[in-house]
Design goal:
Elements (H helix, E strand, L loop, with lengths): L1 H14 L2 H4 L4 H19 L3 H9 L14 E11 L6 E4 L8 E2 L8 E4 L10 E7 L2 E9 L6 E12 L4 E7 L3 E3 L2 E13 L10 E20 L9 E21 L2 E20 L2 E3 L2 E3 L2 H8 L4 E16 L3 E9 L3 E10 L2
Helix pairs in contact: 1-3
Length: 340
């Protein structure tokens, strides 16, 4: 372990500009980086599955085959109830090489929020030598501080010849209490039941989709901080590919839909910020921080069920509610208008 630490200190030192090597204690810098990446992994890990659920839900509007070149635009509203078990994790002073938990003088564990949790009651505090003088770094990572994560987005779908249908979803950056959230994607649907000689009003379709979801959460620095290392946000990006099989049956103005979704997502994490200000010297530490968090990018596969009810009213208007379920639960409510 000591040899590994020395090797990492040497690598860290080589990554710094020459003038920075004379300013910063390399062993303390390496310990700082180890702590930030370890803590960030614990912070984001419980949220990975919930991030995928939100992006993968409510793709198929209806399995029913439509006449070609009909375009529908919907305003969808996604609501994800954060599970209690995913909101916090335990840490103690012995978990850190550089930091200490402010206000905790022993090694007792304390509860801190994940990205899905609340405002953190604890700052992480440590001193780093700059030009031989100790400089305090004091920061914390808050959760989004919302029991229900809500975001609106636009969903457009265009019917194509031969029973195909093109889907696009897009949300602008939605401001959360402690960060931002954005999702977008594209999908292609194909109606299978058109090939059945007698489908008895039953509709069946398959859909393939790509979605991209980005969530970033703010770092908070305390007034005690004497050196700004430039960290502003911790970001997670999930790129997902999914297949969905769904069937439906119409009852008057109602259409009841049920289906199964398979999703494979690739998650990566990165820090974002500004160049560090170290005694008036500007140093960009983000490439060094991000080379470390590359180590815990991951792939995740999940299955989930989906149930939906769609109601047609007026002439071209529809209201739809969708529930996605499995290990977690996500809900979605949309209003759609057929423009063409």
């Amino acid at each position: 372990m000591l040899r590994l630490m020395r090797n990492f200190c040497f690598s860290f030192l080589l990554a710094l500009p020459l003038f920075a090597q004379e300013l910063i204690n390399s062993q303390q810098s390496a310990a700082l980086l180890n702590d930030l990446t370890w803590y960030s992994k614990q912070y984001i890990e419980p949220a990975s599955e919930s991030i995928i659920y939100q992006a993968a839900s409510a793709w198929m509007i209806s399995p029913k085959k439509r006449e070609a070149w009909k375009f529908t635009l919907g305003l969808q509203n996604n609501l994800f109830v954060v599970p209690g078990k995913n909101r916090n994790f335990s840490v103690q002073n012995s978990d850190f090489e550089f930091f200490e938990i402010e206000g905790v003088n022993n090694n007792n564990p304390v509860s801190v929020p994940t990205v899905l949790g609340i405002k953190s009651p604890y700052y992480l505090v440590g001193d780093i030598e700059v030009n031989g003088d100790p400089q305090t770094i004091s920061l914390r990572m808050d959760g989004v501080n919302q029991e229900i994560i809500y975001y609106p987005y636009l969903h457009g779908n265009l019917s194509l010849p031969l029973g195909f249908e093109l889907h696009v979803k897009y949300s602008f950056k939605n401001r959360l209490k402690r960060g931002e959230y954005q999702v977008y994607g594209i999908g292609l649907q194909y109606n299978i039941s058109q090939h059945f000689a007698n489908n008895n009003g039953f509709n069946l379709a398959v859909l393939g989709a790509y979605n991209n979801e980005i969530i970033n959460v703010d770092f908070v620095q305390s007034y005690r901080t004497q050196i700004d290392i430039g960290l502003r946000t911790f970001n997670t990006e999930a790129q997902g590919y999914q297949l969905q099989l769904a069937g439906s049956k119409e009852f008057g103005k109602w259409e009841l839909i049920g289906g199964l979704v398979w999703n494979k997502s690739f998650l990566k994490h990165y820090f974002d910020g500004v160049p560090a200000d170290i005694q008036g010297v500007s140093i960009d530490l983000m490439p060094i921080f991000n080379s470390k968090v590359e180590e815990f990018k991951k792939e995740q596969t999940l299955w989930m069920g989906e149930m939906s009810a769609r109601y047609s009213f007026a002439k071209k208007w529809h209201a739809q509610t969708t529930f996605s379920f499995g290990r977690l639960f996500n809900s979605n409510l949309g209003i759609q208008y057929q423009i063409l």
